[in-house]
Amino acid sequence: MIHLINPLNLFDIGDGTKCYRKPTCILKPIKRFFLKTRIPPITGDCLKSMSQVPLMTEDRTTEENDPHNKVILEVGIPGDTWKYCVDRQALADKSEWFRALLMGDMAPPPSNPPPTICLQHVEKRAFDHLYKYFREEPINFNSVLTARATLDAAHYYLCPELAVIAVDYIIKNLNSSTVINVYHGLSLYALPEAEGNEQIPSAPPENDAAEIAVACTSLLKACLTVIDSAPDEVLREEGFEELTVEEIASLASRDDLRLAKESILFEALDKWAASECRRRGIEPTSHNKRSAVSDEIWYSVRYLLMNDQEFIQGPMASGILSSEESAAIVAKILGHSNHQDNDQLARCIAPYRLSTTPRGRKTPTKAKFGMKPGKKEREDNKKNRRKECTSQGQRACARVGDLVVRVLACVFD
Hints:
Layout: E1 10-12, E2 18-20, H1 24-37, H2 44-49, H3 59-65, E3 70-75, E4 82-87, H4 88-92, H5 96-103, E5 116-119, H6 124-134, H7 144-156, H8 160-173, H9 179-183, H10 208-229, H11 231-234, H12 245-252, H13 262-280, H14 286-292, H15 295-298, H16 308-318, H17 323-334, H18 339-348, H19 375-412
Parallel strand pairs: 3-5
Antiparallel strand pairs: 1-2, 3-4
């Protein structure tokens, strides 16, 4: 029997004789052991510090590799899903929601292969960013819509840091073609009455939900700024038809909308009402569209800011307004209404519903140092107003004959 007795490789053959032999049969296994375990060569310094090296434990690694501790998450709508094989405990340590799902009383029992849990309420790419956030990996968005879906996931799972990352990206890349999709449903996350507030609360949030609400409030303000600056493009987007009735009511009543024409808003409301009829399973007739939207919303359109042709070719031709309403509004637009016409207008339309306030214009401020305009300037303004009124009256009289024919044609049609 051969024994390794010293580092000089002297071996006792058995009869008391010692000889030198290269112990390849012993060194090869030892070499493989050192390579496998990656243990560095033992030196004098290593011997002094070995007492400070913690013992290796394989319990955690074995537990993570155990298929009984795994679960498969199938994320997304049916037919368009991604699957993730995750460790139960690792994900439970990152989220209380997943702790209840994976470790609670309703959690699926361990099995091999791991059980599958379907998460249909979250978009697959949004969950991918959420999973990266849990694993502390960098998050890079490729589109505003994906960032908006990630914001939904961050709100659902109460991840304020991820919500702030998504909001910052959206605000930097927001434009008129994406703002409606971002605006849709955002008020549910923001602070109460956020659309009417001028300032965002500066006090530190008390919890995760409050921190997310503050971030969403700033995003809502950014959305309204984009909508006010480019309403002509925004109102023509298909996403406008997917808004809730509360959302379209809020947008239609805004004084800051810089609309080129009020008929653009009416056309957008007309399309929304037609889509609402289809959602209800009814024919989108003029009567059904009028019933699908309240009178407050229909009269948020400022008809008196239209000219006669714009009103006749738009709201009047649509049939949504009654013939009495149309006739009264046309008379009001042309300025030919007398006391009898005013009484008829009051009977069919509440006067407060017909606003003449222009949109998108700030209240003019006083002159510098509070000085009033000079006398010459006031006289020039009066002359200009007289000329404008005279020219408007001449144009109105010239169009009366053509207008009467159009009104009668629309009524009889």
